């Protein structure tokens, strides 16, 4: 018999399954609020003008396609470091940060998880409750036991900070704490600057290992403002990990462009840590792909293209904000008794709407509006054409 005869079907990815159902829906009013992708007001994934310009220049130059260094090119990694840590960072000047290009933010988490498993195989990993569903899977696949810490408060639709602190204070020294640096996925609930400062203090006191996941820099308040957590940990003297991604803020999803950065105690330590991270990369995929990273590096190195990118990024951020406010107003205008004003306070692409699984199901059945069964919706899939329709549907199912 076949060597695969006993293989079981793996469970379907809930969000990709949603896409399939959406694609099969014949209604022309259908709306997909399930996926984590930014769409413009016409419902298209934008190709940023700054990226297009960099790509045209690159195509004209027709560069050869040799292998890249295992950790990716210095120009790219330096550009990543400047965005995350700020170009005047003391840590960067001291050589205390190593960065390796990675295959998207997911690849950065994977490299970080594999390296942490070598560094401290006995550590436990803690993720927020709830979190991006791949966090648990990635760290479990690296061999870790993964547990939750309290994060979201469904009552206030904000952060359950007392619960979170209580959980952090129970963790054993050396535990890895995965933190969403900004624009928490799936809830849209972020910590305040003061709360971040407290989290840094607890990590310091208890000897925890922070791992900041930054998938949405620039989608909440701006490039530097959204780096508040990275900057707070940088000032603490702690060692920590940071994964970052250009999928959303450069609209380069399928090019798979991200990076893993590790903050060490000294330049000399950095050299040793980088040598080990390179070993992890070498045995995973040898070295990263060229194209997407080259575009990002070219945009960030050019004064003109960088300014254009910042304007385009601000445009995406402002449009999401406008859709948040617009949804709140449009729901109110239906006479809906339930208050949705919290949607305008949440940040990033997502909102935990509080819609129940049954209400989400009704949205799909009766309106052709697709959302995750947890009630998570992607605000970046709303536009001026579907906003009122979605608001009416939410009002109808919550009546
Ligand atoms: N981390 C979080 C919190 C995310 O939401 C995402 C993407 O949805 C990622 C990481 C992965 O990003 P990438 O698509 O660059 O792998």
TrEMBL record:
<comment type="subunit">
    <text>Homodimer.</text>
</comment>
<dbReference type="InterPro" id="IPR015424">
    <property type="entry name" value="PyrdxlP-dep_Trfase"/>
</dbReference>
<dbReference type="GO" id="GO:0005829">
    <property type="term" value="C:cytosol"/>
</dbReference>
<dbReference type="InterPro" id="IPR004839">
    <property type="entry name" value="Aminotransferase_I/II_large"/>
</dbReference>
<dbReference type="GO" id="GO:0004838">
    <property type="term" value="F:L-tyrosine-2-oxoglutarate transaminase activity"/>
</dbReference>
<dbReference type="GO" id="GO:0033585">
    <property type="term" value="P:L-phenylalanine biosynthetic process from chorismate via phenylpyruvate"/>
</dbReference>
<dbReference type="InterPro" id="IPR015422">
    <property type="entry name" value="PyrdxlP-dep_Trfase_small"/>
</dbReference>
<keyword id="KW-0663">Pyridoxal phosphate</keyword>
<dbReference type="InterPro" id="IPR000796">
    <property type="entry name" value="Asp_trans"/>
</dbReference>
<keyword id="KW-0808">Transferase</keyword>
<protein>
    <recommendedName>
        <fullName>Aminotransferase</fullName>
        <ecNumber>2.6.1.-</ecNumber>
    </recommendedName>
</protein>
<dbReference type="InterPro" id="IPR015421">
    <property type="entry name" value="PyrdxlP-dep_Trfase_major"/>
</dbReference>
<comment type="similarity">
    <text>Belongs to the class-I pyridoxal-phosphate-dependent aminotransferase family.</text>
</comment>
<dbReference type="Pfam" id="PF00155">
    <property type="entry name" value="Aminotran_1_2"/>
</dbReference>
<feature type="domain" description="Aminotransferase class I/classII large">
    <location>
        <begin position="29"/>
        <end position="394"/>
    </location>
</feature>
<dbReference type="InterPro" id="IPR004838">
    <property type="entry name" value="NHTrfase_class1_PyrdxlP-BS"/>
</dbReference>
<keyword id="KW-0032">Aminotransferase</keyword>
<dbReference type="GO" id="GO:0030170">
    <property type="term" value="F:pyridoxal phosphate binding"/>
</dbReference>
<dbReference type="GO" id="GO:0042802">
    <property type="term" value="F:identical protein binding"/>
</dbReference>
């Amino acid at each position: 018999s076949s060597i695969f005869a006993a293989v079981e079907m793996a469970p379907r990815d809930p969000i990709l399954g949603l896409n399939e159902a959406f694609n099969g829906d014949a209604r022309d009013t259908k709306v997909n609020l399930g996926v984590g992708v930014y769409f413009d007001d016409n419902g298209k994934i934008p190709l940023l003008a700054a990226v297009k310009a960099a790509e045209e220049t690159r195509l004209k130059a027709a560069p050869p396609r040799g292998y890249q260094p295992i950790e990716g090119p210095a120009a790219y990694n330096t550009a990543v470091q400047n965005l995350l840590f700020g170009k005047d960072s003391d840590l960067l000047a001291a050589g205390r940060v190593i960065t390796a290009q990675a295959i998207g933010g997911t690849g950065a988490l994977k490299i970080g998880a594999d390296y942490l498993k070598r560094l401290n195989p006995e550590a436990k990993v803690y993720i927020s409750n709830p979190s991006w569903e791949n966090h648990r899977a990635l760290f479990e696949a690296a061999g870790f036991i993964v547990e939750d810490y309290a994060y979201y408060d469904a009552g206030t639709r904000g952060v359950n900070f007392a619960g979170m602190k209580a959980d952090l204070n129970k963790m054993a020294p050396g535990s890895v704490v995965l933190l969403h640096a900004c624009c928490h996925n799936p809830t849209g609930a972020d910590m305040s600057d003061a709360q971040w400062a407290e989290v840094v203090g607890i990590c310091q006191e208890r000897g925890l290992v922070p791992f900041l996941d930054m998938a949405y820099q620039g989608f909440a308040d701006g490039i530097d403002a959204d780096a508040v957590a990275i900057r707070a940990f940088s000032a603490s003297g702690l060692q920590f990990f940071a994964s970052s991604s250009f999928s959303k803020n450069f609209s380069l999803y399928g090019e798979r462009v991200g990076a893993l950065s590790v903050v060490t105690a000294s330049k000399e330590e950095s050299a040793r840590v980088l040598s080990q991270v390179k070993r992890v990369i070498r045995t995973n995929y040898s070295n990263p792909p060229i194209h997407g990273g080259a575009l990002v590096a070219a945009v960030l190195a050019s004064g003109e293209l960088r300014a254009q990118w910042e304007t385009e990024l601000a445009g995406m951020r402002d449009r999401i904000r406008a859709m948040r406010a617009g949804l709140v107003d449009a729901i109110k205008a239906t006479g809906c008794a339930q208050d949705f004003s919290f949607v305008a306070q949440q940040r990033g692409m997502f909102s935990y709407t509080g819609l129940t699984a049954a209400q989400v199901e009704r949205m799909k059945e009766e309106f052709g509006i697709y959302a995750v069964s947890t009630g998570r919706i992607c605000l970046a899939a709303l536009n001026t054409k579907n906003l009122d329709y979605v608001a009416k549907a939410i009002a109808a199912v919550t009546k």
